Amino acid sequence: MKKFLAAIIACMAAQGALAGSIYKCTVAGKVAYGDQPCADGAGLELAVRAAPPPDKAASDKLAGDRLRLLALEKERAAGELREERERQRAAKAFAVQRQKCERLRLKQRWLDEDLGRARGEAVAGARLKAKRQAEALAVECPA
Questions:
Q1: Does the pLDDT of residue 3 top 70, yes or no?
Q2: What is the torsional sign of CA 95, 98, 100, 102?
Q3: How far apart, in whole angstroms, are the C-alpha atoms of residue 13 and residue 50?
Q4: Other CB atoms closer than 10 Å to residue 134's CB: what's the count?
Q5: Buried/exposed code over 80-114 (b: 16+ C-beta within 10 A; e: otherwise)
Q6: How far apart are CA 84 and CA 75, in angstroms?
Q7: pLDDT of 85-129, one tens digit each?
Q8: Which of 27, 42, 47, 128 has its CA 20 to 30 A from that of 100?
């Protein structure tokens, strides 16, 4: 940033030295402007006023605005980093929950298969286990 300000100040200081004459020439009925006298010698030399000196108050305001801009950019970057971390945490939590639901669904399927193979007195026990697993699945994964 210091280099940028130094470059601006150098350009403003050199502007006065570079400000030369501007020549207005009429060639074939067309007006042309240039930094060198007209070829036929007929033309007007226009006076160029030097640029006014830089305003100290405006320079100070610009420097203050730049500092505020840097602070805002830093704050924005920190906010984006927080949001990204939150998205990653939420994605990880979602993946864990999805895996848990898949395990519960698998266990439910196995208990349903066990219920289908059960015979005699084991049917009541298998039915109860399958019912309880279905309830647990409905609580943990309500979709």
A1: no
A2: negative
A3: 10
A4: 14
A5: eeeeeeeeeeeeeeeeeeeeeeeebeeebeebeee
A6: 14
A7: 999 999 999 999 999 999 999 999 999 999 999 999 999 999 999
A8: 128
Q: d(Cα 126, Cα 138) in Å, to the nearest integer?
A: 18
Selected residue with higher pLDDT from 140 and 31:
140
Phi-psi region of 30 (alpha: psi -120 to 50; beta: other; left: phi over 0): beta
Paired tokens of 19: 């400000």
| The residue to which tokens 């805002």 are assigned | 72
Whole-angstrom distance, CA of residue 129 vs CA of residue 135: 10
In which region does residue 29 sit, left (phi positive, over 0), alpha (psi from -120 to 50) or beta (all else)? Answer: left
Contact 50, 19 (CB under 8 A): yes
Between CA 102 and CA 126 the distance in angstroms is: 21
- What DSSP letter does each residue of 19-42 carry, written as one string? ---EEEEEETTEEEEESS--TTS-
